[in-house]
Specification:
By secondary structure, the chain is of the alpha+beta class. The chain is built from 1 helix and 4 strands, in the order ββαββ.
Length: 69
């Protein structure tokens, strides 16, 4: 018997965005709030790279969904 399954994994990607001139002196917290607000995506966010997950990480959490066929 075979089953199909979906494995939900968490991945991390690095992005870059140009900060508006009026936010050049913003604190880290202000920059994080700006990112969370979604306004950064109006500025042309660019993908930089996928970050590798350390293979020896034991606390990796997986979520499985089984699809019977």
């Amino acid at each position: 018997m075979y089953i199909m399954f979906v494995m939900k994994e968490t991945s991390y990607n690095r992005y870059s965005v140009n900060v508006p001139h009026d936010m050049r002196n913003a604190t880290d917290e202000e920059l994080k709030e700006w990112l969370k607000s979604g306004k950064a995506f109006d500025k042309g966010v660019e993908f930089v790279k996928s970050l590798d997950i350390i293979e020896s990480e034991l606390d990796t959490d997986y979520e499985f969904t089984v699809i019977r066929k």
